[in-house]
User: Fold this.
Amino acid sequence: MEERWSTEHVLSLAPDQSSQKAAGKLSGPAPWSETGWGGGALWGLCKGSGSTPYRTAVELGTPAYTCSCPSRKFPCKHALGLLLLWAGAAEAVAAGSEVPEWVEEWLSSRQDAAEQKAARQQAKAAEADPAAARRRAERRSARVAAGAQELRLRLADGVRRGLADHTTDASWEEVAARMVDAQAPGLAGRVRELGHTPQGDLLEEYALLHLLAGAFTRVEELPEPLAATVRTRVGFTTDASELLAGPTVRDRWQVLGSRDTADERLTTRRLWLRGAKTGRPALLLAFGRPGQAPELALPTGRVLEAELAFHPGSRPLRATLGTRYGTPEQGPAEPPAGLTPAEAMAAYGTAVAQDPWLESWPAVLSEVVPVLSPEGWQLTDGHSAVRVRRGSVPEQALWRLAAVSAGRPVTLFGECGHAGFAPVTVWAEGARPIGVAQ
Assistant:
């Protein structure tokens, strides 16, 4: 039987704060009837403004949601309210209930859709023409190489002219568009970021971008792990099905943290894991349309036995979730093992030596205290310290972190890089993990 989720985990699924607030009003038993929990699903009828209640169900494994309401947000306030009711009031949603027919039909349709999708992928793979695919790949590589060479020349011209007039040069967007035309979206993204780079950091960014463009023009001469890193940074991708058809790593993966970021195009969820046996870090990415939370959600602190397929590279971190063996289980009571601030920075140094474009590397800091210094927030264990990366979390979240610590050492998970440490999750003494930005 699936364990009940925490309120914090439920709220993390909401597409926005207004959905959290609306769901809170539906978290009591009053609007709900015929609720139940069993067979990997949660369901209930929610009284609305009309005469017919809304049918709401949640498949807990993925999770996935369905509701008969007209809301365009996903999950809607009714699904979130039902989850909050289930998380907070054990007596309100009885376990072991018989699954209603309408819920069984929905679950069956999801299973059928998944099987059909897998069959289509297999058929597509069987019909693929390897020779045609190779020709397409060669044509794209040639276009990207031409774009990379053009970018190198443009960067060199910028350095010769001097960087003082960089911010007045409005043609960088044109250069980014040319990189898109060259099918190099990774280069295009980094070019666009130049327009928002502080003057003092421009030369470093020019150098890294010039190095990346130059590396691609000689990618065939590089060792394969580094060549894979360069291709990924430039914008080449690998299909999930192709990754999962290759080697996978099976382990009991502890969820160290998650964070959502949103723009006008999509919502991106980052989920960080660490293998109990391998000690290997992994990053899962999930995406949702504007106003919709990504489908993949794993509670922080839980442990999931599963297979992961890592994307190729000189320092593999991003992974694709493959076969799961059960649902997420309650994790260890104690915080995860960690490093000192000095050791975390050294680990990042080792990683960046293999991938020069790496901005940060996941790390757990043990026994650190957040303190505010004249230079900004610091995380210290009394012997070494690392600064908190500016802008990584809101200022009020750092004050909440200090309140959780209350001057005592805590365990922190986050990303450690040249700009500092970006905290994601905190474990205080005897407490469950808390998202720093929540």
